[in-house]
C-alpha cells in the first residue's frame, strides 16, 4: 500500500471515528432500531437460515438486537472472534450468551470456538465498516480481518456492511487488498450494488 493511500485511510477513519463519538444516545438507539428492521428484512428477502454478524460497539450502528431476534427466530448466527494471526474464529450465538472483551477491546462472544472455515456455510455475511462508497468499496478499521476472510472464501455469500447513513460516501481510499461488498445496510435503507461480484 502506498504511503499516500495509507495516510488517506488513517485521516478518513479518524474523521469518521470522531463523528461517531459525537452521536447522542438517542441517535444511537434510533440507529439500532433501524438496523434491526433493515437486517431482518434482508434476511427474509434472501431466505437466509445461517448468517454471520458482528457484535456492535457502543458507537457502531447497533447489531445486537438483530442478533437476538435472529437467534429467537431459529436462525443460526455466527459471531467473529479475533485471533492474533489475523484470522477469525467463529462462535454460535445463543439466547443468553456472554460477551467479553476480545483483542483490540472489541466485544466478542464467550463459547465454543469454531475455526475460520465455519463461515463458509453461511447464507449471508454482515460485517462492520467505517464507510462504503457507491461502487461497494468498503473502508474497514485497518486490521484486515474481514478483507482477508472474504478474499479467502471460494464461494462467498452476499456480504453487507453496516454503517450510518452519512457513511455511504462517493469514494473511499482503497488498495488491492480491500474487498468490495454486495451491499450496505444503514438505519434507514438497504442498498445492493448493481456491479457487485457476489
From TrEMBL:
Name of the top EC class for this enzyme: ligase
Any GO MF annotation of the entry: ATP binding
Origin: domain of life: Bacteria
Cofactor(s) essential for the protein: Mg(2+)
GO biological process: folic acid-containing compound biosynthetic process; tetrahydrofolate interconversion
Catalytic reactions on record: (6S)-5-formyl-5,6,7,8-tetrahydrofolate + ATP = (6R)-5,10-methenyltetrahydrofolate + ADP + phosphate
Keyword ATP-binding: yes
Binding residues annotated for substrate, in chain numbering: 55, 60
Chain residues that bind ATP: 9-13
One of the Pfam families matching this protein, by short name: 5-FTHF_cyc-lig
Cross-referenced InterPro entries: FTHF_cligase, FTHF_cligase-like_sf, NagB/RpiA_transferase-like
Keywords, in A-Z order: ATP-binding, Ligase, Magnesium, Metal-binding, Nucleotide-binding
UniProt-listed Enzyme Commission number(s): 6.3.3.2
Metal-binding found in the keyword field: yes
Ranges in coiled-coil conformation: none
Family: Belongs to the 5-formyltetrahydrofolate cyclo-ligase family.
The name this protein goes by in its record: 5-formyltetrahydrofolate cyclo-ligase
Organism from which the protein derives: Microbacterium ulmi
